Amino acid sequence: MSNVINESGILAISTRLQRLADSLRKDGQQIYKAHGIDFEPKWFPVIYTLHLKDTMSVMEIAAEIGYTHPSTISLLKELEKQKLIRSRKDRQDERKRLLTLSEKGQELVQQMLPVWKRMEKALTALTNTTNNLMAAIAEVEAQMEEKGFYERERGIR
Amino acid sequence: MSNVINESGILAISTRLQRLADSLRKDGQQIYKAHGIDFEPKWFPVIYTLHLKDTMSVMEIAAEIGYTHPSTISLLKELEKQKLIRSRKDRQDERKRLLTLSEKGQELVQQMLPVWKRMEKALTALTNTTNNLMAAIAEVEAQMEEKGFYERERGIR
DNA sequence: TGTATTTATGTAGTCAACTACGTAGTTTTA
DNA sequence: TAAAACTACGTAGTTGACTACATAAATACA
């Protein structure tokens, strides 16, 4: 752990958030690997979405997972290459491309469900401290919704 | 805000951390701009370190800010181009390159000190909710130190 | 109806971190 | 004291997100 980042306190908060996110993502990667599952943590939002909703367009998925559409498109491209999802044109609206899980994708989800349960337990144990991280994130997101960092700084007397 | 990311709960925690980090960094950028200061939030750890320690080698800075040395080198290169820092070889050990703030760098720090104060206030207001985010991060970091996400998942019965 | 606007998708290039690997001094040791 | 090992620094290429721009289909409106 770094000295300056701790001592400079809250000013380095985005660096610390980033670092925490990175190491959780990397551990996630290792966990799938240890279970013999060929899956990247970054695929989770798309796969989980299609598991719940069955058929969605590119823009719908992007909105649902909260990514920009270019990022979403590149994820979808990767998942299609992995044969985890399939796409077809919408007959009603030919601008749209509709995505669904493939057979392989559905099987993979079934295989991952118990692993997701285990991950949830581990993450809960990890983050359920005096100040709960998930709750803290939700609270800060709500605060930002109300008034962002920029507006708040501008408002300091 | 995204539905799936919220509903899938803790499994998407790294995505949410990342997103929060990004938006704080972007707002930081805007704040410097609004104060007419030509400064990137990512430069903060290096500049703050050199402000405190005066003279350090590349590896010392990397260790201090907790980045890998290639990342640090590219930051230093940028800062040298901006003329905010200066470098010279170490006479004792010619492998080492010693960095210090330039005149311009020192002046910039003086200009930024009050802005950092304001940012601290705004960030404190933003994050000081029921579950304090800074405290939660520190607690989770400590938990990870003790036993990481990977080890915890492996240990689930 | 044909033109303007909006919407859905795609492409190119950027950014800030990383890992892997290479080179050149320094230190240790047989 | 020369070879081996280590340390400091640098470069190249990757990753996973982004913004800006382009295109094509659908819709609105004069």
TrEMBL record, chains A, B:
Keyword tags: DNA-binding
Any single Pfam family the record assigns to this protein: MarR_2
Biological process per Gene Ontology, one example term: response to stress
Protein origin, superkingdom: Bacteria
GO molecular function, one term: DNA binding
Domain HTH marR-type stretches: 10-142
InterPro entries according to UniProt: HTH_MarR-typ (IPR000835), MarR/SlyA-like (IPR039422), WH-like_DNA-bd_sf (IPR036388), WH_DNA-bd_sf (IPR036390)
Protein's UniProt name: DNA-binding transcriptional regulator, MarR family
Species this protein is from: Chitinophaga jiangningensis
